[in-house]
DNA sequence: GTGGTCTAGACCACC
DNA sequence: GTGGTCTAGACCACC
């Protein structure tokens, strides 16, 4: 698989699957139109319950990341620019995380510029690099 | 109070209290050595369950943000450079959030540079601005 | 063909075929007594699984829209006033959809009158217009 | 309860619960800010599994019909005008149902005007009347 | 084969 | 008390 899941984290497993696929797509491991393992296949591969995987796939479909075709399988959707409300919701989420970063940064004595460099570096490493930074 | 709490948000209330205090400290509303209202005081002031407040205070103490001195009260801890393990934990958290930002950014078509600008702007606004950006 | 089918929609394909034929008949593209392609012909023409097409034809026959004459082929049935039970079933379906419309309308703030106008307009456009409104 | 559920219908149970609540709200049986029975309560009352009820509540929250407050309960959300994309999606659904009605109407020999009258009548009866028309 | 639903029952976080 | 998640296993519709 393109990612791993850790049941001991507080993040729900199905959410980790959702995040894992988004990451795999951004990194280019999976591409538009690609067929995704079936719900049951992935469940077996990752030793998860099929309901958990199905929940993740359904959420990814709601987010327009996957396209589920009944009786045929699940595919990576073609990219569509998000609706305004979708965009707003995502931007708000991003801004909130940026504030959190700034606050956490304060406690490890990272200045704004330090954080900017770390950000650049993180993206670099991560785009080229492996699954886990 | 220096912050507000919204029970309708999915973020747990105790977490909002934790974040609220950290934010107040970074913004300078509360300073090192300042006395913080007791659990029961704050619970009354903000009409929260005192268990919820207690949980927040415990977490803030665990993170060395608060210092609880038995019989005297709760204070904002003096700043100490974090232990290595603390620092590592916080850095890991920051890096993870940065990755999330990059992924979310992908879906609203924000490039690395767009994100950098947004980051700078967010911090600017937030530092000068009020509690809610 | 007189209609198209989209496997990406949540509506089952066989149902889309059923709806497509009904629509074609109401619009007059196909008339009473017209011969309809055989299951296998249509399956080839539209690149569908023949089981899917067969299921649609069976349902259309059950609803007295098609008439399958053994050894001769499938035809658009001549119009017969429906039996009482048929009529009741269809009316119940119609009433239920009308309620659904009213409820959905509520959430987009459409009044009864708005819905009536929309209904009139929809029929107008649809009767004159093409396959997809 | 304000509605009943029929496990033998093809419509999934959780969807029937969703529709049932929307109907109850439009009819005014339940009002903005009202507390809804807890997931487990409703499950017991209607002899359903709590997972099924939870799924319905979650969908209603996604549609901004319910508001779920962690640890406190579930409430009828205040009405907010939908986003443009939400509105478009709902309108498309309405238009599609109207076309279906027109087609079905054809088979019971109901003219456009007949359908209009039936629509008016349906809403009248249903708004004043009981749970099942 | 594909995904979707449902029940039963356990466990958890939050207030 | 509240809702959320997860597994196990059954059953179903669709292609």
TrEMBL record, chains A, B, C, D:
Domain of life per record: Bacteria
A Pfam family of this chain: GntR
Membrane spanning stretches: none
Gene3D superfamilies, A to Z: Winged helix-like DNA-binding domain superfamily/Winged helix DNA-binding domain
GO molecular function: DNA binding; DNA-binding transcription factor activity
PROSITE patterns: HTH_GNTR (PS50949)
InterPro entries: Tscrpt_reg_HTH_GntR (IPR000524), WH-like_DNA-bd_sf (IPR036388), WH_DNA-bd_sf (IPR036390)
Domain called HTH gntR-type: residue spans: 11-79
Keyword line: DNA-binding, Transcription, Transcription regulation
Protein name as it appears in the record: GntR family transcriptional regulator
The organism of origin for this protein: Sulfobacillus benefaciens
């Amino acid at each position: 698989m393109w990612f791993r899941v850790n049941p001991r984290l507080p993040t729900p497993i199905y959410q980790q699957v959702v995040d894992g696929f988004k990451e795999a797509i951004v990194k280019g491991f999976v591409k538009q139109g690609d067929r995704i393992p079936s719900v049951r296949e992935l469940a077996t591969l990752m030793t998860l319950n099929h309901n958990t995987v199905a929940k993740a796939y359904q959420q990814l479909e709601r987010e327009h990341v996957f396209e589920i075709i009944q009786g045929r399988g699940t595919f990576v959707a073609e990219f569509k620019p998000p609706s305004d409300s979708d965009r707003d919701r995502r931007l708000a989420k991003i801004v909130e995380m940026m504030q959190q970063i700034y606050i956490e940064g304060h406690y490890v004595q990272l200045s704004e510029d330090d954080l900017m460099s770390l950000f650049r570096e993180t993206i670099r490493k991560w785009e080229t690099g492996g699954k886990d930074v």
